[in-house]
Design goal:
The chain is α+β, with helices and mostly antiparallel strands. It contains 4 helices and 4 strands, in the order ββααβαβα. The strands form 2 sheets. The chain has a two-stranded antiparallel sheet. The protein has a two-stranded parallel sheet with strand order 3-4. It starts with a strand and ends in a 21-residue tail after the last helix.
Length: 129
C-alpha cells in the first residue's frame, strides 16, 4: 500500500515499502517489516503510533519476542530502520540496533545475502502499558 504524505510545499510524496527489493536480496534470516502496517489504521494521519497490543501482535508475527535482539536496516537512508528502532523502543523493547550503512554497507563488506521469502515465524512480545 502506498501512503501519500505532503511535503512543506504541499507536493505529495508517495511512501512505498520496498518488498521487491527485499525479495531481491536481504541479510540471511531477515524479516520484512512493513512500516505502513505498523501504525494506527484508524487514524487519519499516516505513520501514527499503533496501540501497544497491535504492535506486540505485529512484532510477534515478525518473530520478535521479548528476548529477541532486532537489527534493523533498510535499503535507503536508514529512515525506515530508525523508525522501526524508535517504534520498538517507544513500547519498551530496548534490544534493537540499527545497522550502520544499511544493506548497502552489509553487501560492500562482503556479507552474504539471501533471496528466500520470510519464514513463517511467530513469537510473543508482551504489550506494555
Amino acid at each position: 500500500m502506498a501512503t501519500p504524505l505532503l511535503s512543506a510545499d504541499g507536493v505529495p510524496n508517495i511512501v512505498r515499502p520496498d518488498r521487491e527489493g527485499f525479495g531481491a536480496g536481504h541479510a540471511p534470516g531477515a524479516r520484512f517489516a512493513d512500516l505502513t502496517e505498523l501504525c494506527d489504521p484508524a487514524d487519519r494521519f499516516a505513520f501514527t503510533l499503533p496501540s501497544s497490543g497491535a504492535l506486540a501482535a505485529a512484532a510477534g508475527a515478525l518473530g520478535i519476542g521479548t528476548d529477541t535482539h532486532v537489527v534493523a536496516y533498510d535499503t535507503t537512508t536508514t529512515a525506515w530502520a530508525t523508525r522501526l528502532w524508535w517504534l520498538l523502543r517507544v513500547f519498551g523493547h530496548d534490544r534493537v540496533s540499527v545497522l550502520d550503512g544499511g544493506l548497502h554497507a552489509w553487501r560492500e563488506s562482503g556479507h552474504p545475502v539471501e533471496t528466500a521469502r520470510d519464514p513463517s515465524t511467530c513469537c510473543a512480545l508482551r504489550p506494555c502499558g
